[in-house]
Amino acid sequence: MNIIFDILIRLIAAMLLGGVIGIEREYRSKDAGFRTHFLVSLGSALFCIVSQYGFGDNQHDFSRVAAQVVSGIGFIGAGTIIFQKNVIRGLTTAAGLWVTAAIGLACGTGMYIAAIATAALVLLGLEVINTLLPKIGTSRVQLSFTATTKDSVRKAIKQIRSHNIIIHSYELKERRTSNGEIYEVNIELKVKRGNSHDNIISYLEDFDDVTVSSME
């Protein structure tokens, strides 16, 4: 009975700690959110528990199972990394899944203090330190908008550049609709960190025929 209770505590701890990190990722609108993180953590903990109690008293090999979990989580992490237009995205999400698996392993072996401390440090790094650090350097933003004339496209781009925003790449498509021609613009911007998406959208509010489709 004590073993069953201990196993339940380990699984619940893994689920909670992984879920907390997942909630933070969900708040940041990342593809790997609450469900992904708590499943990774819970699965890692269960693998550890199975290695301890699932094969009899004489067949314990904790290190082998832990090594396989570390290797296996790499496939999930690799799936979250996207290389598009010379920009790598998803590295933080992949690293988050990796450390979440480690937290699950720690819970599975009963190392609750290490698991809780790691989860706290992850949240500290993702939220608190990131907020307190000065906004230095630049980040890339993918902006898509539509306009009814090429002149409006030129003026919108000029407006963006006037705020010291660098246009890294530019794509213009012309599409015919029942209401006439529409110009679709996809731009990759290089902006200073701290320049929010709302600021960029406000730069285009002066143009009545310009509509922002997406920004990420």
Query: Roughly what percent helix?
Result: 55-70%
Q: Give the overall average pLDDT.
A: 79
> How many alpha or pi helices?
7
Q: For the record, give the distance between the C-alpha atoms at the N and C termini, rounded to a whole number.
A: 51 Å
Described by strand count, sense and barrel closure, the largest sheet is:
4 strands, antiparallel
**Structural class designation:** alpha+beta
Q: Order of helices and strands, N to C?
A: HHHEEHHEHEEHE
* Approximate shape: elongated
What is the strand arrangement across the widest sheet? 4-5-3-6
What is the radius of gyration computed over CA atoms, rounded to a whole number of angstroms?
24 Å
Approximate strand percentage? 15-25%
Low-confidence stretches: none
How many E strands?
Answer: 6
Please tell me about this protein's structure:
The chain is α+β, with helices and mostly antiparallel strands and 216 residues long. The chain is built from 7 helices and 6 strands. The strands form 2 sheets. A 4-stranded antiparallel beta sheet has the order 4-5-3-6. α2 runs parallel beside α4 (91-108). It starts with a helix and ends with a strand. The mean pLDDT is 79.
